[in-house]
Amino acid sequence: MTHFNRILITGAAGRLGIELRKGLAHLATHVRISDRVELADVQPNEEAVVCELGDYEAVMVLTKDVDAIVHFGGAPLEVEFETILDSNIRGSYHIYEGARKNGAKRVIYASSVHAIGYHEMEAHIDADSPVRPDSLYGVSKNFVENLSRLYWDKFGIESLCLRIFSSFPEPADRRMLWSWLSFADCVQYVERALVAPRLGHTIGHGLSDNRLKVVDDSKAGHIGFHPKDSAEPFRDAMEAKTDAPDPNAASVKYIGGWFCELGHPDDEGK
């Protein structure tokens, strides 16, 4: 069923962006896809736009005539602060300003576990727990979560801030036995947020139906996401090929994993 005339997907050349292009195509007559690089395999209902999110004027054009925005663009890892500032902080402000000025009423934002990465595994947090970023990258996600709250309260733009944990084709290490979000479940979560009767301002936690339940996602229950996949089929093989981790290591103690062991990115190579 087609719900929109036109949706915008940023970060459309990325790992998840490629999956979203395929999985959300049926929701809209037109899909505008954007990244900072040329996009391949553009489909008949897709309109491809190369855009730097830090370019205000370009983003105002990018967000024109769209009904909803799936914002997965930006620097995807801990990198130097100037890149995070331009791509993630300034770029996301431009997206929300574009939504406000051009009349888009719903934004689905790719937040991250790294916005809350310094919570301990046993804390069992939910959407109302304090943020505890594990990196400058995580701080940029905190900024956009707060920005989206402002744009809901003041301007009525609905948002899902989806804190993605580990979304890959299959679990790649022991941590992902609890933190994995399958591609199909990620697309389903975004789709449910796009078509939900009411979204408001929601913090969601992107996890498949894994055995270990580290985070409570019930405060996003009104969206109607029900994960269909689980990391359990991968457990025996993963545990057989990897040693048991040190329970006192920061990468095991905190839900942010190895990000909690990183130094300041501007010091790298010095």
UniProtKB/TrEMBL annotation:
User: What domain of life does the UniProt record list for this protein's source?
Assistant: Bacteria
GO MF annotations in UniProt? dTDP-glucose 4,6-dehydratase activity; oxidoreductase activity
Write out the transmembrane intervals: none
* EC id: 4.2.1.46
Question: Where in this chain does the record put each NAD-dependent epimerase/dehydratase domain?
Answer: 7-168
Q: Is the keyword DNA-binding in the record?
A: no
Question: What InterPro entries is this protein classified in?
Answer: Epimerase_deHydtase, NAD(P)-bd_dom_sf
Q: Give the signal sequence positions.
A: none
Q: What class of enzyme is it?
A: lyase
- Presence of the UniProt keyword Mitochondrion in the record: no
The alphabetized UniProt keywords are: Lyase, NAD, Oxidoreductase
As for family, the record states: Belongs to the NAD(P)-dependent epimerase/dehydratase family.
What protein does this entry describe?
dTDP-glucose 4,6-dehydratase
Q: Which organism is it from?
A: Roseovarius albus
> What gene does this protein come from?
rmlB
